[in-house]
From TrEMBL:
<keyword id="KW-0663">Pyridoxal phosphate</keyword>
<dbReference type="InterPro" id="IPR029066">
    <property type="entry name" value="PLP-binding_barrel"/>
</dbReference>
<comment type="pathway">
    <text>Amino-acid biosynthesis; D-alanine biosynthesis; D-alanine from L-alanine: step 1/1.</text>
</comment>
<comment type="similarity">
    <text>Belongs to the alanine racemase family.</text>
</comment>
<dbReference type="InterPro" id="IPR001608">
    <property type="entry name" value="Ala_racemase_N"/>
</dbReference>
<feature type="domain" description="Alanine racemase C-terminal">
    <location>
        <begin position="234"/>
        <end position="358"/>
    </location>
</feature>
<dbReference type="InterPro" id="IPR011079">
    <property type="entry name" value="Ala_racemase_C"/>
</dbReference>
<dbReference type="Pfam" id="PF01168">
    <property type="entry name" value="Ala_racemase_N"/>
</dbReference>
<comment type="function">
    <text>Catalyzes the interconversion of L-alanine and D-alanine. May also act on other amino acids.</text>
</comment>
<dbReference type="InterPro" id="IPR009006">
    <property type="entry name" value="Ala_racemase/Decarboxylase_C"/>
</dbReference>
<feature type="active site" description="Proton acceptor; specific for L-alanine">
    <location>
        <position position="255"/>
    </location>
</feature>
<feature type="binding site">
    <location>
        <position position="133"/>
    </location>
    <ligand>
        <name>substrate</name>
    </ligand>
</feature>
<feature type="active site" description="Proton acceptor; specific for D-alanine">
    <location>
        <position position="35"/>
    </location>
</feature>
<dbReference type="GO" id="GO:0008784">
    <property type="term" value="F:alanine racemase activity"/>
</dbReference>
<protein>
    <recommendedName>
        <fullName>Alanine racemase</fullName>
        <ecNumber>5.1.1.1</ecNumber>
    </recommendedName>
</protein>
<feature type="binding site">
    <location>
        <position position="303"/>
    </location>
    <ligand>
        <name>substrate</name>
    </ligand>
</feature>
<feature type="modified residue" description="N6-(pyridoxal phosphate)lysine">
    <location>
        <position position="35"/>
    </location>
</feature>
Length: 360
């Protein structure tokens, strides 16, 4: 019985991508980003397998994600870095869950240091080198080192920064950020260093430092936002055909009559729509994969349905599954057709898709 969209998660593909990133990272540690519920695939699931593959450090964004990950890892003593850092009032909960906050600002440093008072607590420090999102400016880091009592109860184990253009190897900001990072990190000579996300891990030895923090390329997205044949699809989203029909020449399909058949057209109606994570913006360039070929989507994406051209495709019958993303339709390609990225596509796959797990 196939009546709903299906999301197959291939854990062996995840392990293969992990091995690829490990090779690209040289001797640097791979500390997977598992924020946003493991990029929509299930943080407990992906972190469990990545632990089995040797990962011992993970990154989450929100406190709630860190608490859930700590619970799911049980007695597996991973380091869990909390990218949001010490938000107001959060210090006791961060400590209780055994999370290592990434301190992003002087007030966050103050909050963690005063929470630690009398003891010593681990922390990572985020230096902003050009993203202008989170992190201390390099000049603030220098001031901090001149006022060491602000760090009196803190053990800074790691200094991180984040690249804005790692997917574009020739972008001049990469070298500029690296230079600023090296200079600021030198203020904390006992701390390990981490600069690279997925894209950064492939920028060469100069960007790897002690630890790389890949996310998207573990989960099947290319490090440059385009399909990369070295990286395997981890998520396969499929939907069954509910109905096959013939649309006569001159008639339209779907809301807004946005597509008109120029000829007699055979159409499959699939049980997936934007409520399953198919972007509404997939119209008019999106397609699905079925029976050896890409089949264009026709008309607007509805909440629960999409229409697909199956002219000259005899195999398209009710119940047959069509691939929306997966090994034959890379997530980067599907994302580009909808004007978005693999990151957004994966994190928007909805709970309505039935999860199937493949691999050990
Ligand atoms: C999300 C994130 C990563 C992982 O980035 P990818 O592009 O998915 O590899 C690494 N570091 C930080 C600070 C992040 O926010």
């Amino acid at each position: 019985m196939t009546e709903a969209s299906r999301l197959t998660l291939d854990l062996d593909a995840l392990a293969s991508n992990h091995a690829l990133l490990r090779a690209a990272a040289g001797g640097a540690e791979i500390a997977p980003a598992v924020k946003a519920d493991g990029y929509g695939l299930g943080a407990a699931l992906v972190a469990g397998r990545l632990w089995d593959e040797g990962a011992r450090s993970f990154y989450v964004a929100r406190l709630s994600e860190g608490v859930a990950l700590r619970r799911s890892l049980g007695d597996r003593a991973a380091t869990i870095y909390l990218l949001d850092g010490v938000t107001p009032g959060a210090a006791p909960a961060i400590e209780a869950a055994g999370l290592t906050p990434v301190l992003n600002s002087l007030p966050q440093i103050e909050a963690w240091n005063s929470h630690a008072r009398g003891r010593v607590l681990d922390a990572a420090l985020h230096i902003d080198t050009g993203m202008n999102r989170l992190g201390l400016r390099p000049e603030e880091a220098a001031v901090l080192v001149g006022a060491m009592d602000r760090l009196k109860f803190l053990n800074i184990t790691l200094v991180i920064s984040h690249l804005a253009c790692a997917g574009e190897p020739d972008h001049p900001l990469n070298a500029r950020q690296r230079a600023r990072f090296v200079e600021a990190a030198a203020l904390f000579p006992d701390a390990r260093r981490s600069l690279a996300n997925s894209g950064g891990t492939f920028l060469g030895e100069a960007f790897r430092f002690d630890q790389c923090r890949p996310g998207i390329s573990l989960y099947g997205g290319g490090p440059r936002d385009v399909p990369d044949t070295r990286i395997k699809a981890v998520a396969t989203l499929e939907a069954p055909i509910l109905q096959a029909r013939v649309v006569p020449r001159g008639e339209s399909i779907g809301y807004g009559a946005a597509f008109t058949a120029q000829d007699t057209t055979r159409v499959a109606i699939l049980a997936a729509g934007y409520a399953d994570g198919v972007p509404r913006a997939a119209h008019p360039r999106g397609s699905v994969w079925f029976d050896g070929a890409r089949r264009p989507m026709l008309g607007r994406v509805s909440m629960d349905l999409i229409a697909v051209d199956i002219t000259d495709c005899d195999a398209a019958r009710p119940g047959a599954l069509m691939q929306i993303i997966g090994p034959d339709l890379p997530v980067d390609e599907a994302a580009a057709a909808a004007g978005t990225t693999s990151y957004e596509l994966l994190t928007r796959i909805a709970p309505r898709a039935r999860r199937v797990i493949k691999g050990g």
